[in-house]
Amino acid sequence: MIELNDSNGAADWAADWNEISEGLRKDLGAQIHTQWIRPIRPGSFEPGSGMLNLHLPSEFSANWVRERFADRLALAWKIVRPEVRSVTIAAAPREADPARPRTAVPQQAAAPAPRPALADSGNRIALDPSQVFSGFITGQSNVLAFNAAQRMAAMEKPLFSPLYLKAATGQGKTHLLHAIGNAFAEVNPGARICYCPAEKFMNDFVSAIQRGDSMAFKARLRGFDMLLVDDIQFIIGKNSTQEEFLHTIDAILGGGKRLVVTSDRAPQALDGVDQRLLSRLAMGLVADIQPADIELRRAIITARIETMRMGEVPEEVIEFLARTISRNVRELVGGLNKLMAYAQITGQKVTLPLAEEQLSDLLSANRRRITIDEIQRAVCQFYKVDRSEMSSKRRARAVVRPRQVAMYLAKVLTPRSYPEIGRKFGGRDHSTVIHAVRLIEDLRTRDADMDGDVRALLQQLES
Ligand SMILES: Nc1ncnc2c1ncn2[C@@H]1O[C@H](COP(=O)(O)OP(=O)(O)OP(=O)(O)O)[C@@H](O)[C@H]1O
Q: In whole angstroms, how far apart are CA 85 and each of 47, 70, 421?
């Protein structure tokens, strides 16, 4: 490991950093640059692994920068110094305290950014101040959850508690959780608010028991006015922690305080969770965030380009990203960051061919081929009809509608033509498929149940 101090060619590294930093200033604007980017220093370099360790003055700023700019920084360094293969971002070790542990997280150029770490500030424990409601873009798929989240953060007591936010990975649960905390802190400046990943809750609880001060731990938790617990599925299976969590929930809810939890699954699907805990979690409001649809993905990209001052991005590139990076919002935002960083550092214009070239890995991962067989299997399971009904000639409504939904999904999710789809459904004519597709399209706009069924199936098939 080479410490990049004065005797080790620090001047060269500093000069390279100046060049990168200047480029970022143009891209991000003076304010963000002065506050977050300019304080970064190249700290040390490991020639064997090609890992460059970047330092910031505090844990908080290191986490903030890592969450947002790790991709860009890694890419910029790789271009300026090809021997750099990855970058870590951490608080600089204090000179008077050389043994102080660092929390660097190795960051590959294209890897998803890790969560912001916990930072305490008075009454607000571990809230990320940048995750706010105004930065959360809403569409059909998340507006219910968004409204419920706003209600939870309002001055008046909500009619429900807990709020249980459910969504697949990367669809904005954590963002909403921090936004609730930040908004509540604004209307109740004295409120004590704690954000806590469920895993951390467990670890802290276990350490408190080991240290023999579990009473203090419990008292502290129960003293919060709002408790925000992320990824509750990770609490599964630990009986003692579940018991403690149950008591904490009871104390919080009993005291009229607010509790919000997130999970990637519904409360009933949390295997191995104590029945009493399940019923507490499900007794408030369970709000679902569905995967972002194309309109929402488009809106998120457009908003991000504007707020991050990314400059001009052609409409066709926005459309291309929104259409092709469909698995989750984290990948969408990460892909956009990567593309913009590359264009900015190499001085190229953002074009469609550049997007295709730079994001090829992400694009092919998103282009998982869904087969008509898979669709038929999922639809039959969903509507509880026999698989043979997909090809049968039966015209009873109970089998015709599922068949039409399956044809519709085959058209939306696969590149197959109408005649090809017809052949897979018992050799039906292509006009039957066209009719089915149009009918389901129309029903989706008029019938909320049908729209809900199709969304659930799309989510299942695309995940
Ligand atoms: N509707 C949205 N508007 C703006 N940004 C969004 C939206 N949804 C998600 N994001 C952004 O996408 C990224 C991933 O979101 P987040 O971390 O909240 O996902 P998550 O559902 O908590 O994922 P996981 O289950 O993996 O923890 C974040 O940068 C977040 O700000």
A: 10, 13, 47
Measured by CA distance, the residue closest to atom 25 of ligand 1 is 169
Whether ligand 1 lies within 6 angstroms of the CB of 153 is answered as no
User: For residue 19, how many other CB atoms are within 10 A of its CB?
Assistant: 11
Q: Is 173 annotated as a binding residue?
A: yes
| Residue 124 Cβ < 6 Å to ligand 1 | no
State the maximum Cα–Cα separation within the chain, in Å, rounded to a whole number. 83
Whether 170 is in the pocket of ligand 1, judged by its Cβ within 6 Å, is yes
pLDDT, one tens digit per residue, over 187-243 is 998 999 999 988 888 888 888 888 888 888 888 888 899 999 999 988 765 677 788
Lowest-confidence segment of 119-128, 405-414, 449-458 by average pLDDT: 119-128
CA R_g for the chain: 25
Q: Does any ligand 1 atom lie closer than 6 A to the CB of residue 177?
A: no
**Beta carbon of 330 within 6 Å of any ligand 1 atom:** yes
Q: Which residues pair with 121 in a beta bridge?
A: 124
Q: Is the CB of 228 under 6 A from ligand 1?
A: no
Contacts of 170 (CB under 8 A, 6+ apart): 112, 327, 328, 329, 330, 331
Element (H, E) at 165: strand 163-167
pLDDT band per the 50, 70, 90 thresholds, residue 396 = very high
pLDDT tens digits, 46-102? 888 888 999 998 877 888 888 888 888 888 888 778 788 888 998 887 654 333 333
CA of 419 to the centre of ligand 1 (A): 39
Query: How high is the pLDDT of residue 97?
Result: 38
- Residue 388 · residue 344 · CB < 8 Å: no
Atom of ligand 1 nearest to the CA of 137: 3
104 pLDDT more than 80: no
Please report the atom of ligand 1 found closest to the CA of residue 262: 22
174 labeled binding residue? yes
Contact status, residue 152 vs residue 258, Cβ threshold 8 Å: yes
Q: What is the whole-number distance in angstroms between the Cα of residue 268 and the centre of ligand 1?
A: 23
Q: In order of start, what are the domains of the chain with their CATH numbers?
A: 2-91 (3.30.300.180), 120-289 (3.40.50.300), 307-366 (1.10.8.60), 372-462 (1.10.1750.10)
When pLDDT is averaged across residues 385-408 and rounded to a whole number, the result is 95
